[in-house]
Design a protein that fits this description.
Elements lengths: L2 H5 L3 H19 L1 H11 L7 E7 L4 H11 L13 E6 L2 E2 L5 E2 L4 H10 L21 H7 L3 E9 L3 H7 L29 H7 L4 E5 L1 H4 L13 H7 L3 E3 L2 H6 L6 E4 L15 E2 L21 H18 L6 E7 L1 H7 L3 H24 L3 E7 L6 E3 L8 E6 L5 E6 L15 E6 L9 E3 H12 L3
Helix pairs in contact: 2-3, 4-14, 5-7, 5-15, 12-14, 13-14
């Protein structure tokens, strides 16, 4: 290609060229060389904004199940439409640094939040010495970026917790939950529970469940005797509890959205998998136990983006924002062997992906990454299979039957994570870095370098 023609490459053409280079090179020289070719084809590496979307427990089987049920085997979800896709490894470590092949959400989240692998159950602290490690959100704040975290779990659950807290054990979510974190208590000179640390960080947007944690009373320090919610208001937070309150929130002050006592109720319902299987079923795309005032994940994501962008515009900041969005109950419904709940949460997460990609289409200096923290148990199996665990037969939107099996634990027990690598896909500045097989800790470096965090 002539030099003059190379100069005229638009970013979109560059991505196409990069993808073609990957296809051409990978078969001959391996994925690593393909990544180098893609890196050379994509010009510019600075992102103004980063939107990181985490489907908790959303391995390839979970994605395929949702695709088959909702848009068909030959259809494509929004998360399937990213231009660049790879896989990353998810293992945790033991205290001595040796691999622990099946991670939980705390250790996996710590991997991308800090670039450091840790032991299962620990939140953004080292595996052996139990020392706090600076997170992407903390670095983003220090460098002038607006920050946000949106989840369908409790805001104190592992995946949101890794960004704005450091505790020895993930169970230390509120001031009354500190039994496993004696050195982290305020009385011991520590930073307190996940809830206390999250509001103390003054994260600009916190949307999710977990009101019960924030209703606990602080046991020591400046806010002793007050609830964490009262602490948040004292620190300037607008506190909202439903969709109307969220949509009415104004930029300029941080917003704490607490949309459920615990986890946000799931969107779909159906019969859980059973020993010997279930009769063919269609999922119910509504949940009578989900209040109509509960915002969807997509609406929460859209409002978070609006608030973060408005804050930076009001402050005439050159920097943009860092936002993490989690579809948490894909994992939780997988644990419960509930295929309809799981598919509904994957579909809800996919709508949030659509929101993020629509924003990036208008703001191409935005890096959007979607991935999972670990694999999970669900497997699509032949209809004639008689698996030893729990199974359910679904009737898809294509009118075909599909059997899903859950056999990573004894029936009656919570189904387990798996140690498989999981998908990571991206668009925007430095998106080429997801190509090939990488590790969760590499995602930390990608985002840090995209935002040029010091």
């Amino acid at each position: 290609m002539p030099r003059s023609a190379r100069r005229r490459l638009t970013p979109a053409v560059a991505v196409v060229a990069a993808t073609a280079a990957v296809v051409a090179v990978t078969s001959a020289a391996g994925a690593f060389d393909g990544r180098q070719q893609a890196a050379g084809a994509i010009r510019g590496g600075k992102a103004k904004n980063v939107i990181l979307l985490i489907g908790d427990g959303m391995g390839d089987s979970e994605i395929t199940l949702a695709r088959d049920y909702t848009v068909g085997a030959n259809g494509r979800l929004d998360m399937d439409r990213f231009p660049l896709t790879g896989e990353y490894t998810t293992y945790a470590v033991h205290a001595d640094g040796t691999p622990d092949y099946v991670t939980d959400s705390a250790a996996s989240g710590t991997g991308w939040a800090t670039g450091v692998k840790t032991v299962n159950g620990r939140i953004s602290k080292t595996p052996g010495s139990d020392k706090p490690v600076r997170t992407l959100l903390e670095l983003a704040q220090r460098n002038g970026y607006a920050t946000g975290s949106v989840t369908t779990a409790e805001l104190t659950d592992a995946t949101p917790a890794v960004l704005a807290s450091h505790v020895t054990d993930r169970s230390c979510q509120g001031p009354a939950d500190m039994a496993k974190c004696p050195s982290d208590t305020l009385a011991s000179g520590g930073p307190g529970s996940v809830a206390e640390q999250s509001v103390n960080h003054k994260v600009d947007v916190l949307f999710g469940g977990g009101k019960q944690r924030f209703d606990q009373r602080v046991t020591d320090g400046r806010f002793k005797g007050r609830t964490v919610t009262e602490q948040a208001r004292s620190l300037g937070y607008q506190v909202v509890t439903d969709d109307a309150g969220m949509k009415a929130a104004e930029p300029g002050k941080p917003v704490l959205g607490l949309f459920a006592p615990g986890n946000v109720p799931v969107e779909w319902t159906g019969k859980p998998a059973a020993t010997g299987g279930t009769a063919p079923q269609r999922c119910v795309t509504s949940n009578p136990n989900r209040p109509s005032t509960t915002p969807s994940l997509a609406d929460s994501a859209a409002k978070a983006i609006q608030l973060l962008e408005a804050k930076q515009r009001r402050h005439h900041s050159r920097q943009g924002f860092f936002l993490q969005i989690e579809g948490a109950s894909i994992d939780k419904q997988d644990h419960a062997a509930d295929p309809c709940g799981q598919i509904g949460e994957t579909a809800a997460f996919d709508r949030a992906v659509k929101v993020a990609r629509a924003y990036a289409a208008k703001h191409p200096d935005t890096l959007v990454v979607t991935t999972a923290d670990h694999g999970h148990t669900s497997q699509i199996v032949p209809l004639e299979a008689t698996p030893p665990g729990l199974s359910s037969t679904l009737v898809t939107d294509e009118g075909q039957q599909l059997k899903v099996n859950y056999s990573t634990n004894t029936p009656g027990q919570s189904q387990e994570h798996t140690g498989t690598e999981v998908r990571i896909a991206a668009q925007g500045p430095l998106a080429y870095r997801v190509l090939g097989v990488t590790d969760q800790t590499d995602l930390f470096t990608t985002i840090r370098e995209a935002l040029r965090l010091r």
